[in-house]
Here is the input.
Amino acid sequence: MKIGIIGMPQSGKSTLFRLLTNSQSGLNGKAAIAVGKVPDQRIDRLSEIFKPRKTTYAAIDFVDVPGFAAGTGNNASEFFEKVRDVDALVLVVRAFQSDTVPAANGIQPAVDFNTIQQELLIADWSILERRLERAAKQRVKGGSAPELAVLEKCKAVLEEDRPLRQLDLDEEEEQLIRDFNFLTKKPLIVAVNVDEAQMQGQAYPQKDELEQELREKGIPSLVVCSQMEVEISQLEPEDRALFMAELGIEETGIARLAQAVYGDLGLISFFTVGEDEVRAWTIRDGFTARKAAGKIHSDIERGFIRAEVVSYADFIACGSLPKVKEKGLFRLEGKDYIVKDGDIISFRFNV
Here is the structure.
């Protein structure tokens, strides 16, 4: 899974990138890509029990592009090209005050949100116009252009200054435009970057205005204190927990962001366990057991026989695999079983 981080200059998005990945952002206008480990207390507990040689958490690839300056017009499409292949976008808006990092146009998170939204729409217009022209030419020549009708639907939505994620399409229509990678079709999550005082006081400029707009548009959001959380992340675990409690932060930035991403994209995790490795696997909610097996290896999916399943809660209540078997809590499920979040699965297969 790949997440693009976008925002205005000096919004603190590169600090957020560092918080999420423990990596530096790109230099000289270059995009940076790094992996962030998704914390999961269930994996922590399973590792304590199995003491495996290796523990593998779910991971998210983050792409950080340079801050986008308003008013670039048609250059928007070229600028955002770096995040066209991502699965979702995180838009960082600045709320924090800083004398050393002044904001060119003041602290206006609601205004910044709308500015970036508008540039995303412009970028999609650029792609749409080219695709419409190409499809129309194919139709004139007597060729097939099945995507033309869908593109006309997209045009109608963009003409209303609405993002394409608000467009209801069936599965076939979605497939026809999937490769166009429209930016406003991608799930969007807003990260409000605050300072320490704002985090503790739970208040920042334009808060009510921004929250109301996000609610009306159905866009999930979270509040982060990137600079402070980066500093806290460098501390020893005991000190880290103390400082997070003082700030009223119950979970790390990446944990909160991962929850928002998983919820918005409809993602869940299942686990494989053993002495060699305890591992989390990320899949779409609704995946069958056979399809989930394919996340591990195509041979397991192809030769799928059965899935031996126990829920995380049942396993923890028992404390060990022998106890699970003793209580008859392992279930043998077929290829059409719908995997649930937290399932611990052992696949039986033959190739």
Observations:
- The chain is about 45% helix and 20% strand.
- Residues 286-349 form a domain with the Ubiquitin-like (UB roll) fold (CATH 3.10.20.30).
